[in-house]
């Protein structure tokens, strides 16, 4: 990755200010697709010896994940380092501390699997899932699971195809991931998948019995999909008999109202 990227790919990207969190809550109402903000948990900006020295204060698993490019050679080097650590008995589900760049004090705890999901390296994510990482482990700040991260908007430096996201979620579910966990803002993964227009992810979640009627700020996934004119997602949801098509939000609106309004 180029050093001109907006933020380091070694940062704890789940971090957002309270203003940013509120903005995400309003996202589906205002029909805006906002990407997650840069983290105030910045750990490393690319390249300098000072940055590398700071990175090296973190857990070895995180050091093995973080790097400055995503070439195939780089991924193979990462995997080799990770295999060596797991072979030596390192717990793949260990909660790793993220340090403040200026003070060096711990500011969050996050699993290597979640960091890998933020980074967006498919092979690294698969490695942790297939080597026993807890698929339901949450990070300490927003209580996000790996599935939440994969359903969310793209994080800085992350590049995952829709199919990759859906396949990884399917793999997480195969390894015991729960699909109805609510984060600190009371968002389920399906809410994020709908807001960020990820029909493949919605389909995988619904096939795994995600609750189609769980409300976020009064709106169900179907209501949100209709409000955003997510036609593919609307069809996926109404094809499942569990979906309540007559749900009314706090203002009395239904999915049909939103669809008719052309929002």
UniProtKB/TrEMBL annotation:
<protein>
    <submittedName>
        <fullName>Uncharacterized protein</fullName>
    </submittedName>
</protein>
<feature type="region of interest" description="Disordered">
    <location>
        <begin position="1"/>
        <end position="53"/>
    </location>
</feature>
<dbReference type="Pfam" id="PF13637">
    <property type="entry name" value="Ank_4"/>
</dbReference>
<feature type="compositionally biased region" description="Basic and acidic residues">
    <location>
        <begin position="8"/>
        <end position="37"/>
    </location>
</feature>
<feature type="repeat" description="ANK">
    <location>
        <begin position="108"/>
        <end position="140"/>
    </location>
</feature>
<keyword id="KW-0677">Repeat</keyword>
<dbReference type="Pfam" id="PF12796">
    <property type="entry name" value="Ank_2"/>
</dbReference>
<dbReference type="InterPro" id="IPR050663">
    <property type="entry name" value="Ankyrin-SOCS_Box"/>
</dbReference>
<dbReference type="GO" id="GO:0005634">
    <property type="term" value="C:nucleus"/>
</dbReference>
<dbReference type="GO" id="GO:0000976">
    <property type="term" value="F:transcription cis-regulatory region binding"/>
</dbReference>
<feature type="compositionally biased region" description="Polar residues">
    <location>
        <begin position="39"/>
        <end position="51"/>
    </location>
</feature>
<dbReference type="InterPro" id="IPR002110">
    <property type="entry name" value="Ankyrin_rpt"/>
</dbReference>
<keyword id="KW-0040">ANK repeat</keyword>
<dbReference type="GO" id="GO:0045944">
    <property type="term" value="P:positive regulation of transcription by RNA polymerase II"/>
</dbReference>
<dbReference type="InterPro" id="IPR036770">
    <property type="entry name" value="Ankyrin_rpt-contain_sf"/>
</dbReference>
